[in-house]
Amino acid sequence: MELSAEDVGLYESIDGHKTVAQLEGPYPGARDRLLAWHEAELLELILPITPVAKPHIVVVEPHMDDAALSVGGRLLNRRGRSRITILSVMKWSSFTSYLTVGRDFANVEEITDLRIRESELAAKILGAEQRSLEWKDAVLRSWPSERWSAAIAARYKREGFLFTVFVPDSKEVSQLANQLAVHLADLDPDELWIPMGTSNHGDHRCTRNACLLMLAENRQRFSDFPVLMYEDLPYAAVEGQAQHIRTVLSEHGARLTRYSEDVTEVFDEKLRAISAYASQFKIAFMEPKIRRIAERDGGGGGKLVEVYHRLEGEFSLPPEPLLSREAAGLMRLRSGLRSLKTGGGNRRRITVMALPSGSVIGWEKHTRSLEATFPAAHVRLFMPEDMAWQMEDSNKSEKERLRVGLVRPGIRGWLGVLWTEVFHLGTPTIVLWRGAYGAQPHRAAKKLVNTLIRLLLPFRRMLFARSLRDLTQMQEGDPRATKARASGVAPTNSKSLRRPLE
To answer: Which alpha helices (H) appear in 408-485, and where do they start and end?
Structure first.
């Protein structure tokens, strides 16, 4: 769109504070041009809202965009009638949708600033205030910004799950639970909305678990107002996952009542708020996903709804494996590790075979955990040469009890590994690969891999994990058992929690 000299002056006068009427003075006819630019998605027209103090709704979101995606319609239904605060957990990020097409990916400060400005704009449309904690998102926690390169960006494009799909770190869950308790004491909500964690993304699962842990440990303080769990969108498209989480929570003392709210009248405006996150996705890509779920849950007939669940009761945080989409596979891994530990604490050798889709990111930390679990064992890690990039966080020093073998491409490389291993009868073997937990579409493939390895390496205890990271978490247990909190803030039932240091 080309602008005349007068149009340029009008456009540059838009500062987020002047009203349409104020711009009409120096620029007669500004209203029509502003409406045209709004239609072209060049600017937003924010409805003036008289601030209210009560009731105060606080929405906890994993990333800056999850609230707009998941509960944007319900917030619009309350715009101007409630004070609304959106509290984002993950602030620092290097991710935009352009990362996968070779754009700049290294400037965390610039990208984070962009995402904050997008979130503030979306919040204004929703009639909310935006706040955030100081957490780095999964991509940066998996691979620090100083070690990103064009090659790593290309890896991310092909294998993004290596950076984002993982069992949450129990220590991070505990730390986040404490920080949320501190911030919510300051915000003093009358209603709290938290994510259900229907996504397999590690950040969503971490945020969900931290919220539940915080509520369980501060039951008295959070029993005076409603706590509502929203289904994370667009991930709630996976049939049965929300019901699975409801069932597990009910088995641990929670009572959940399902509700749906009609957002048909405000759905287009919700899409407008979502479109503010242009660095993350384009609305043409996201709208069909969001609309399809809203129509499905609305039961047809053109009705569009958002689903949520009221959380009540004296509950405990369930073990993370039970809440996962891959609960059966993770529980098998957890049980197998316990069996190995109790039945073989003095084992002399542990073999880890990382297949091409497995992950050894953060390998030094996670192999130390494996060594601590089996203190008398020598750990032998085999992985394809093409996975060596995942060990860049290492000084590559050879440890006394850990040896890494890089496997040459092709079947001959793995045949060499099998030939080496065939003479170590009874060695427990852990296989790392994407299909480890047997979820569709990997169930048949896992059965085939399991059968082949057992035929070639008989008389072994076989365990399957997606990554060394998952292996560590299945060894370390649940966050509620963690006594020392990284944040240094003890759980409390008092509202007089001290503020965190900035």
So the answer is: 411-421, 443-456, 468-476
Structure token digits, residue 182 = 């501190």
Q: At 126, which amino acid appears?
A: L
CATH number 3.40.50 given to 327-477: yes
200 and 235 Cβ atoms separated by less than 8 Å? yes
Residue 495's closest CA among 220, 251, 277, 304? 220
In terms of Cα–Cα distance, which of 115, 64, 93, 237 is closest to 164? 93
Q: What is the mean pLDDT of residues 212-218?
A: 95
194, 226 contact by CB (below 8 A): no
Residue type (1 letter), 472:
T
Look-up: residue for tokens 């399991």? 450
Count CA within 13 A, CB hemisphere, residue 236: 27
Contacts of residues 335-342 at CB distance under 8 Å and 24 or more positions apart, as own/partner, are: 336/461, 336/463, 337/373, 337/463, 337/471, 337/474, 337/475, 339/461, 340/374, 340/428, 340/461, 340/463, 341/373, 341/374, 341/475
pLDDT value for 299: 92
CB of 267 closer than 8 Å to CB of 65: no
Q: What does pTM read for this prediction?
A: 0.89
The segment with the largest mean pLDDT, out of 115-119, 377-381, 425-429, 468-472, is 115-119
DSSP of 307-355, one letter per residue?
EEEEEESS--PPPHHHHSTTHHHHHHHHHHHHHHHHH-TT-SEEEEEE-
The burial class, CB within 10 Å (0-12 / 13-18 / 19+), for 318 is buried
Please give the structure tokens belonging to residue 469: 């990271």
Specify the CATH number of the domain 56-323: 3.40.50.10320
Tokens, residue 293: 């779920």
pLDDT digits (tens, 9 = 90+) for 7-21: 999 999 999 889 999
- Residues 262, 266, 269, 273, CA torsion sign: negative
pLDDT digits over 291-343, tens only?
999 999 999 889 999 999 999 999 999 999 999 989 999 999 999 988 888 76
Is residue 302 within 8 A of residue 294, CB to CB? The reply is no
CB-based contact 14:30 (threshold 8 Å): no
Distance CA(142)–CA(469), nearest Å, equals 10
H/E element, 285: helix 283-298
User: Residue 295: CB partners within 8 Å, gap ≥ 6?
Assistant: 302, 303, 304
pLDDT at 80: 95
Q: What is the mean pLDDT of residues 237-258?
A: 94
Q: Which residues contact 194 (CB under 8 A, 6 or more apart)?
A: 60, 207, 208, 211, 212, 227, 228, 229, 230, 311
